[in-house]
Structures are given as C-alpha cells and as structure tokens.
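Exam revision sheet. Question 4 asks you to relate a sequence to its structure. Input first:
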Amino acid sequence: MSFYYGDTKGALDNRKHFLAKLGIDFQNLVSAGQIHGSAIKYVLKEDKGRGALSYDTSITDTDSLITDKRNLPLAVFTADCLPIFLYDSKTPAIGLVHAGWRSTQENIIARTVELMKEKFNTPIAGLMVGFGPGIRKCCYEVGKNFVDFFSFGLTEKNKRYFLDLAGINKKQLLDLGVDHQNIFDSGVCTSCQNKNFFSYRKEGKNCGRMMSVLMLK
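Answer key, structure tokens:
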C-alpha cells in the first residue's frame, strides 16, 4: 500500500481495489508522511487527496491525523508499529495514529486525544478506541536502554527486554480518562503472523506497509 517502502509498483492499484470495497474514492485519501514523531495534523477539506497519488504530496512530518470533516479518508502505514483508531461519536470526529516506540515515548496518543478535546470538545470518557495489528510484547525485543525511556510496559526475560507497545498506549489512554470498556484491541502480532502481515522486524527495512484507513461518512 506504500508509495515509499517495499514493492511500490502495485501500490496504487492495491489502494484502488481496497478502498473501492469500502466505498471510498482513492483520490480523496489523506496520507500521513510519518517520521516516528508526535506531530498531529487537523485535516481540513483542502487537504483532500494529499498523498493519494504520490508520497511527495502526503502531509509531511506527521504521525497522527484528526478531522471532524466528512468524506475525508485518513490513512497511516505500518509494519509492526501500532495503528490506533479514534472515534468521537458525539461531535462526530475521528483520529488515526501511527504509534511506534518513539511516538509512544512522546505520548502521541495522549496528545492526539487532548487535541481532539481542544478542537472538537471530544468527551474523553466516551471516546471509542481500536488497536490494529502491531508487534506485541511476545516478539518486540528491545535493548536494556529502554528502561530509560519507559517506566511501564517492559518485561525482562533471561536478561532480554520486551516492549508492550499496545499496553503502554492503553495505559496512556486510561490515564487520560478513556473508559476501558471503550478500548478494543485486535490482539494481532505482526511478527507472529508475518505470513499475513508485514513485519519490519522479520523482513527488514525493505518490507511493504499495511494501510489503515478511517473516515466519517
């Protein structure tokens, strides 16, 4: 699905096929140009189509997108990082987050929710949240230096350290006041299930990317 990573020659056709099944015009897609940071973009009507036909036109240096505009399909791309879907049914409004370890360390999910509250008066307790496929603590081995980055979500096994990316993001949401009953986790590990999902850890830097999409109708 990516115009930048992996085998890109079929990406546009893949997007057309996938989005057509959802009733979404591929030319309207708004894509994040991700850098593993914590920048958030409030997507407006004039952003429609950014990143739809080329990587260079995507919203640069951004790992989280929010909008309250209808028929604006938001997209992030992952291959182990965690895609997080946010839905405020009251406004209504949505958010879509690309959460790797660096973005998670910078509290990107909390920053996104807080911006939704600021922009849309989103009721945090009632926010609906979904975690897509991502690498899980069973497979996400990291260095010992990660104890300096995270006070929660690290497991040590035989002097090896494993990061719980989904668990950390869930805790950050709960700490904000999101109701635990409103957080839904696919539980899919991209590394364990590399046969069905791209995994940077398993395949290396040239692996493809999956696309997560969210839109208000």
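Marking note for examiners. The chain has five helices and twelve strands.
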